[in-house]
Amino acid sequence: MNEILEIIEQDPKKDPSEIALLTGYSEKEVQTRIKELEDSGIIRKYKAVIDWDRVGEEYVYAIIELKITLGDRSGYDKIAHRIASFNEVRSIRLISGDHDLSLTVRGQSMKDVAFFVAEKIATLDQVQNTVTHFVLKTYKEDGVPLFEQEKSRRLAISP
């Protein structure tokens, strides 16, 4: 099972027949297993990694760290679910260190992100403080390098 997941994670478009060749399972076994993984929620979504800079879209990303005050014994899950409902939030994680939650958010401008933090996040009762880090450049996303691989400048040796 893990073999199939690793292959799909690297290339969700890989055909079940190719996965079967790589794993030694039959194509039917691969198709059945993938369906079970989808139905059980282990495979949540198939995703494309897009280099928005090359498309020309001007998105601004920020990493926002939150210090949370837990008051009603609800734990981090309740506030995380609330924050996850905002469209601007791309990811949310419980982290160790000085802050409790780390958000990755996307907006059309720095002003949009600042407004989101000030009006939607900082106003939540459980949020004690925030620290916002704007992403200046992304070099790798979900394991995919977003820069051109340097071509070798060495001349080929021929007899």
What does this structure look like?
By secondary structure, this protein is of the alpha+beta class. It has 2 domains: 2-39; 55-139, Lrp/AsnC effector binding domain/regulation of amino acid metabolism (RAM) domain (Alpha-Beta Plaits, 2-Layer Sandwich). It has helices spanning 2-10, 16-23, 27-39, 52-55, 75-84, 110-121, and strands at residues 60-68, 89-94, 101-107, 127-134, 140-141, 144-145. The strands form 2 sheets. It has a 4-stranded antiparallel sheet with strand order 2-3-1-4. It has a two-stranded antiparallel sheet with strand order 5-6. Strand 5 (140-141) and strand 6 form a beta hairpin. The mean pLDDT is 89.
What form results from the Cα inertia axes? flat
First and last CA, distance: 48 Å
Strand % is 15-25%
Instruction: Report the top-level CATH class of the largest domain.
Output: Alpha Beta
What is the CA-atom radius of gyration, in angstroms?
Answer: 21 Å
CATH architecture identity of the largest domain: 2-Layer Sandwich
Q: Taking all residues together, what is the mean pLDDT?
A: 89
Strands, total number: 6
User: CATH superfamily of the largest domain, called what?
Assistant: Lrp/AsnC effector binding domain/regulation of amino acid metabolism (RAM) domain
Spatial order of strands in the largest sheet: 2-3-1-4
Extract low-pLDDT stretches.
none
Q: What's the total helix number?
A: 6
The helix-strand sequence is HHHHEHEEHEEE
What oligomeric state do the depicted chains represent? single chain
CATH topology of the largest domain: Alpha-Beta Plaits
Q: Give the helix level as a range of percent.
A: 25-40%
Q: Helix/strand/pairing class, anyone?
A: alpha+beta
Number of structural units classed as domains: 2
Task: Describe the sheet with the most strands.
Answer: 4 strands, antiparallel
